[in-house]
């Protein structure tokens, strides 16, 4: 894993600084609080979702504990729903009463796979932290848990969502409500305006965008679930291409499988514009980062899944360097607009070449153009500039330049050689980049300094030897 990451970073030098920052953030996420309940919560968060454990650090301190526990409560609820070994007669009442169980200091349950069993067996530690929250925070978490649990129970009784409307409703229960809940926690903290609560529809779309991406990506894992497969793709879509959802994992059905996959991706893309609308209304920069990073990663994952047979063969995921860049740059709306615009343009080009005869391609292009139009309009209306838009590009140019020229001369003559000066500048920039990326602070001044360093390094490296002679050594 480490060797692969190193190779990827070497092949994509613009990802070096973001990867360093992601590694440091990962280490910070593993620093657990001293208090036993909170320590357990953050340890479990790292265990069940390392990416969320990193992203939650973007939040203001006063929001981290409520959001962490909110995530774990819903993860426990989801574990009950997903465990196919729990009889329906036990599972359905448990889901419907889980909002009361979260107040029970003694409740625990041996269920779920190995990844979640510790969380479920030692759940009273989560309850301990939950009960320490303000009445407003507890009310938000309880209400969302109640609504989600009842929704999950309804779908266990009804089975696979047959229509797209049912699919949307299921995703609302398991993910749209999460978006609504975190929005309520943002407002409860006083860091966001109460007017954001009026945008419940946009919060829901944001959750659906994430959930549908996960459902598409996890097709093979879900269909191979034991003792019974988990099937979330709506029959209204897959029924156009096969007699059974399980048929898509067979190689002989690959053409039909890809058509269905592209239809599923197209359905998910319709939520992208609404996600941008929600993000444009978020005012706190730390909350913005927390929300924007998963949205950008979801769109990138959808782009990877589109027309990709690997969805039916294994796991489709971004390179860590790409994910690290998104974590690094998603600091404001211009950055998010550029990310969505670039992804939409790349998918649009693929639609014209790879899938021009696909049954759903016209609607795919319609959604992509809507996303692109929203991004172009947003960038035109915005007076903001992302400080680090070209940060890694500057660094990567200098990083490569430092290796183009061999090291000559003794230490006393180092600065008399343009190649050595380039190397010294590269070393200095490397130190600056790592230090400031670790601190995760705005760097408009540092960005300009790096640009000057790049210019000087390039200039002196290409000066004529006679204008800058090497020192003579004995």
Automatic annotation (TrEMBL):
EC number: 2.5.1.21
A GO-annotated cellular component: endoplasmic reticulum membrane
Keyword annotations: Magnesium, Membrane, Metal-binding, Transferase, Transmembrane, Transmembrane helix
Cofactor names: Mg(2+)
Pfam families from the UniProt entry: SQS_PSY (PF00494)
Superkingdom of source: Eukaryota
MF GO annotations: metal ion binding; squalene synthase [NAD(P)H] activity
A Gene Ontology biological process term: sterol biosynthetic process
Transmembrane segments: 391-409, 421-439, 445-463
SUPFAM superfamilies in UniProt: Terpenoid synthases
PROSITE patterns in UniProt: SQUALEN_PHYTOEN_SYN_2
PANTHER family, per the entry: FARNESYL-DIPHOSPHATE FARNESYLTRANSFERASE (PTHR11626), SQUALENE SYNTHASE (PTHR11626:SF2)
Family: Belongs to the phytoene/squalene synthase family.
Protein name: squalene synthase
Species: Botryococcus braunii
Upper taxonomic lineage: Eukaryota, Viridiplantae, Chlorophyta, core chlorophytes, Trebouxiophyceae
């Amino acid at each position: 894993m480490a060797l692969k990451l190193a190779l990827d970073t070497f092949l994509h030098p613009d990802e070096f600084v973001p990867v360093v920052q992601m590694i440091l953030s990962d280490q910070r996420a593993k620093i657990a609080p001293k208090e036993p309940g909170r320590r357990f919560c953050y340890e479990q968060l790292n265990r069940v979702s390392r990416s969320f454990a990193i992203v939650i650090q973007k939040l203001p301190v006063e929001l981290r504990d409520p959001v962490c526990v909110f995530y774990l409560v819903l993860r426990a609820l989801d574990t009950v729903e997903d465990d196919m070994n729990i009889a329906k007669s036990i599972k359905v009442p448990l889901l419907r009463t889980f909002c009361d169980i979260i107040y029970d200091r003694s409740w625990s349950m041996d269920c779920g796979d190995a990844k979640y069993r510790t969380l479920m067996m030692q759940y009273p530690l989560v309850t301990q932290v939950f009960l320490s929250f303000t009445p407003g925070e507890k009310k938000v978490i309880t209400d969302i848990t109640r609504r989600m649990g009842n929704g999950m129970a309804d779908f266990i009784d009804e089975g696979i969502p047959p229509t797209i409307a049912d699919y949307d409703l299921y995703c609302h229960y398991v993910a749209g409500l999460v978006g609504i809940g975190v929005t309520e926690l943002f407002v409860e903290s006083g860091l966001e305006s109460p007017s954001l609560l009026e945008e419940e529809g946009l919060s829901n779309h944001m959750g659906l965008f994430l959930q549908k991406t996960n459902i598409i990506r996890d097709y093979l894992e879900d269909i191979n679930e034991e003792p019974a497969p988990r099937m979330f793709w709506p029959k209204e879509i897959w029924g156009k291409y096969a007699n059974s959802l399980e048929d898509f994992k067979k190689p002989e059905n690959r053409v039909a499988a890809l058509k269905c996959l592209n239809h599923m991706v197209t359905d998910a893309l319709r939520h992208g514009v609404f996600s941008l609308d929600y993000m444009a209304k978020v005012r706190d920069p730390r909350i913005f980062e927390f929300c924007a990073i998963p949205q950008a990663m979801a769109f990138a994952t959808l782009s990877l899944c589109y027309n990709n047979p690997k969805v039916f063969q294994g796991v489709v995921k971004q390179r860590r360097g790409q994910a690290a860049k998104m974590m690094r740059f998603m600091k404001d709306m211009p950055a998010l607009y550029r990310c969505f615009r670039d992804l939409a343009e790349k998918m649009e080009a693929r639609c014209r070449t790879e899938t021009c005869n696909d049954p759903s391609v016209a609607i795919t292009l319609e959604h992509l153009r809507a996303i692109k139009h929203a991004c172009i309009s947003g960038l035109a209306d915005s007076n903001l500039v992302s400080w680090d838009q070209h940060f890694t590009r500057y660094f990567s140019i200098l990083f490569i330049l430092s290796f183009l020229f061999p090291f000559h001369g003794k230490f006393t003559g180092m600065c008399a050689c343009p190649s050595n000066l380039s190397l010294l500048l590269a070393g200095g920039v490397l130190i600056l980049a790592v230090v400031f990326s670790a601190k995760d602070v705005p760097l408009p001044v540092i960005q300009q300094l790096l640009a000057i360093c790049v210019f000087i390094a390039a200039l002196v490296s290409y000066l004529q030897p006679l204008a800058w002679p090497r020192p003579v050594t004995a």
